[in-house]
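For homework, think about our next protein:
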Amino acid sequence: MTVEADYIYDPSQAVTPLDDADKLKAKGTKHNRAKVGSARPSSLLYTYGPGAVMDLPNFTIMPTGLDDWDRIYDRREGIRTIHAPRLREAVAKLMKSRDVALRPHPWQPQKLAMSTEGNDLGVPARVFPQWLRCTGCDLLGPLTLFKYSNTHPYRSDQATFEHTGCTGRKGTRKAKGRDAVAARYLLACADGHLDEFPYNEWVHRGRPCTAAEAPRLKMPTRTAGKGAAASIDCTACGKSRSMSEAQGAAGRDKLPKCRGRHPHLDAFEQCGADTRLMLIGASNLWFPVTQSVVVMPVTSPEEHLRDLATVVRIALGPNLAKFGGNIEVLKALVEQPVPAAFVLPDHEFAAVIDLARKTPEEPEDEKREWDPIELLVPEWKYLLHDAVANGQRDEVSGLTLARRERGPALPPQITRVLAVESLRKVNALIGFTRIDEMDRVDDVDKRFVPLARAAKPKWTVATEDLGEGIFLQLDEDAVSAWERRTYNSKVWIAHRAAHKLNFERRHSETAADVNHETRLKPPRYWLVHGLAHILIRELAMTCGYNAASLSERLYAWHASADRPAAAGLLICTTASDSDGTLGGLVEQSRPALLDRVVTNALRRATRCPSDPICSMRTPRAPEDFLHGAACHCCVMASETSCERANRFLDRRFLIDLPGSSLGFFQLPQ
């Protein structure tokens, strides 16, 4: 055993699926293939990333930590990275790794349908959970009791585990192989650990079996008056125990303490916290912690120099210190990975090298103070400049902006419209949590589960999408005046009280350390958020994309020493395809079309099929929901569209409703 970054880890158990397949092939046997399924990059970032349990047709797997991915990347001489300087800097702070790079998933396109390009790439994963149940006889046991088969070269969906010689529940059927599926129960703790359920200890109540050293277990499902309930039966001593005893608050006292297991890292650490019963398909089993940016051109010479120094330092690695004084050698070494540095004059390249060689400022201390708004501020500042909205594409960032004239019917509170004809959005995964979603990554460090065993990961996985959008800017004076009268309203006072109650009831430890007021979005955010949602719903009927394909990016905060006040939004659609999107959304930014979209959206916001219940909904203790006059019939959007899970929404802030006069917009008569 070795200890790395406070983890107990056995390197001999590393996941190397391709190497295992090669060994079997070398023996001349009909080997089981390494590929067990496929998924889109977006799902591997937001739904099934490292540490998540992914359902396959016949069993479940868990993508492993990034340490095991290096063996896959090493099959290629050059590893492509994604260039997004501001996102990379934020990721470096949050992952406490100065030179972390952003890499795409290990994948290569195929030239022909039946060709083999990219077959030696892929995301490594292990079978998890590793306790299976036979569908024929209810036999419950580890993987070693079952036969694995995955021999069809083009049908990875047929990969399966079988219980060979199964004779059925009563033992009277003809012996044959029957499918085995994942046992459904797991143990998790609030600090992100996950473990197999201890079935043997459970049925014997923590004692050894009196009839056999390694007894066989079964998991029958019995139907009772209150529904189906599984039980664990020992065939050796005859003991049985229902899984319903482990459920709920009462069942937690009967569960063992957490062993500190991270199955995606194949490692353990000290824990001992209380555990709770989890099901494989539970929605709170894995919450990704991600950050994203719309890549904007770098306009500051200092920022450009800092970015180039980072790229050069990552590309050179140990060669930077080895050949630090030889500019010609360093230029030759970075010619391929960093062509921009190679064409610099010697004196400029020397300045880049000097900056790259500076003693690193460790980002640990910065993480606690980091605010997600830091990623949005540069975007907002760039979008404010009329000079950049000239319709010319920036080749480095991929951004193309065009100024649109305001239509005569556009509400006067919307002062500026930009057509974002092309954009590049980069999303990075930095970790995950279990049981409770993380409000801010710097709130409670120990709940943040890392993606790798290394204390300072060299890279993290990211996706890159191309698309288009519409940017709207609101009049700052009008927003400020509206906010001043909103702060004293009964509706806002009720929202503040509900947010405080909601924050204090959180399952995590966040509420104990953070003032809830710092997490409550100001009224302008509720206003911009509601406007984005009604526009998404209206644009879905006119632009050719469905509502789930449209997403929001909100700029709504008060002025401070290092950032100007913001009140605006970007509605965009992106695709991972190399051609991006088709232009249907940006077409709606034309004055005549946008006027109709905004007017119709505001008119629809005045009515809801659930009115008057919806229009008068205000949280009152003990209620702690974080929305007011908003529901799925009128304002709420799909999870893929909303950046706040449909929180901080209230139609009364957009338009006057019966009994309320808080509306920011006024409909034309």
The radius of gyration is 28 Å. DSSP finds 19 helices and 27 strands in the chain. Residues 363-368 have pLDDT under 50 and may be disordered. Residues 298-360 form one domain.
